[in-house]
């Protein structure tokens, strides 16, 4: 009972926070998405569209490398050490990262230090020093990280799955790079690429905090408005998810499996609905695979939106009994397809789903990151609409999207080869005609 009361209080308390107005501004050709909050911390994300379409295969790793040394390596008027010292004194943090569809440079600061923090951020963006020593240090760090990813079976499984699914397309490229590609990158390439990236047609700003709209407009006009128009990025090549199996042998204590299935795009009407359905599949996996059968410590199911033009239903498990695990994972999907999720199950899930959504998006940084992804997905307004969208979810709609989209699964396996055969990787039943789906009961 205490948990239920807590959820109700939390959701009610969070709704006004997320209901605060978000505005879209156009400032000298730059789109600015501004969410005003009452928080003492403000976050700015300067996002750059394009992701893997901005780079060639040989340039994998170049985007995060260029953005990081630009933002953290000092400027034409303040060296790296002095910049780091002032940021520490202010309590301001800079960061940069690159994803498959967009990259970003971010700044988080205390509201009281907003003016000076913005000045330092804008100076770093517009006038980066990008010296040779900083470039070499960051390149070495990235090479080390890339090698660690390939050594980690969990991460390597996902690399294998991506290569299998997107072979020959833009999404097969790795934004963070491979050890081989990063080692060959040069400082001049980074400088030229950074200049190429920063154009008004490619960037947008997401700002969250207790800030003034006129002040934001003025700051953008006096700084980032000086950027050239540049070129808009092209759309990535995509690949349809097809049935398939890839088995890779590695002598591991446990075996790693991931399945990627069809899913609607996040900005489509079915996107958030399908994400909700996959969160319900997660619950069934947890109960059946972990609690009842002890087949895995952390089975999961979810909606993978990290490839915006080819999102996927993601099925995952680590297990010492892959044959039985695969059989149960597929059987659970088929049971949902035939009998559907129950109305009571859907209603109960709404509360916990929204609670988790609000809890994970409490900070200004988290809100800025989700809105950045929503905008890259085609509509930043999804972030503010999620409460009403989930609140209006009907059981028949959840069952419809689950039945329609989760059809073909591409499986990837990393572990002991003699533990499985290709025949163990079953496919869900095909899309059932509506007449064959039983009416769910409480």
């Amino acid at each position: 009972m205490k948990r239920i009361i807590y959820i109700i209080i939390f959701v009610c308390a969070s709704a006004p926070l997320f209901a605060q107005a978000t505005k879209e501004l156009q400032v000298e050709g730059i789109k600015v998405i501004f969410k005003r909050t009452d928080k003492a911390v403000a976050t700015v994300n300067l996002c750059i569209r394009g992701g893997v379409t901005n780079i060639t295969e040989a340039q994998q790793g170049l985007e995060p490398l260029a953005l990081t040394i630009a933002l953290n390596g000092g400027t034409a008027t303040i060296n790296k050490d002095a910049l780091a010292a002032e940021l520490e004194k202010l309590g301001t943090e800079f960061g940069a990262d690159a994803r498959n569809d967009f990259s970003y440079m971010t700044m988080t600061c205390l509201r009281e230090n907003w003016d000076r923090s913005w000045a330092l951020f804008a100076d770093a963006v517009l006038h980066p020093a990008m010296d040779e020593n900083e470039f070499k240090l960051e390149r070495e760090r990235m090479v080390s990280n890339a090698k660690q990813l390939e050594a980690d079976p969990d991460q390597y499984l996902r690399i294998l799955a991506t290569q299998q699914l997107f072979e020959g397309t833009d999404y097969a490229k790795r934004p963070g790079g491979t050890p081989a590609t990063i080692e060959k990158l040069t400082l001049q390439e980074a400088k030229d690429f950074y200049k190429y990236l920063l154009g008004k047609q490619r960037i947008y700003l997401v700002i969250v905090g207790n800030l003034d709209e006129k002040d934001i407009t003025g700051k953008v006009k006096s700084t980032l408005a000086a950027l050239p128009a540049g070129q808009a990025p092209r759309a990535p090549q995509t690949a349809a998810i097809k049935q398939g199996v890839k088995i890779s042998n590695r002598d591991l204590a446990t075996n790693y499996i991931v399945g990627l299935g069809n899913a609607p795009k996040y900005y489509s009407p079915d996107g958030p609905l399908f994400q909700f359905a996959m969160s319900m599949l997660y619950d069934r996996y947890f109960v059946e695979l972990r609690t009842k059968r002890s087949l895995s410590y952390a089975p999961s199911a979810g909606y993978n939106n990290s490839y915006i033009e080819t999102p996927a239903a993601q099925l995952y498990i680590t297990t010492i009994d892959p044959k039985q695990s695969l059989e149960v994972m597929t059987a659970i999907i088929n049971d949902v397809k035939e009998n559907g999720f129950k109305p009571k199950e859907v209603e109960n899930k709404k509360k916990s789903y929204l609670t988790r959504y609000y809890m994970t998006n409490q900070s200004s940084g988290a809100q800025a990151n989700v809105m950045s992804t929503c905008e890259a997905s085609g509509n930043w307004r999804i972030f503010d609409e999620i409460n009403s969208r989930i609140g209006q979810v009907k059981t028949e709609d959840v069952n419809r999207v689950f039945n329609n989209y989760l059809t073909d699964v591409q499986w990837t396996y990393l572990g002991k080869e003699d533990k499985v055969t290709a025949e163990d990787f079953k496919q869900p039943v095909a899309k059932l005609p509506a007449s064959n789906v039983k009416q769910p009961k409480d």
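Residues 1-17 have pLDDT under 50 and may be disordered. The two ends are 21 Å apart (CA to CA).
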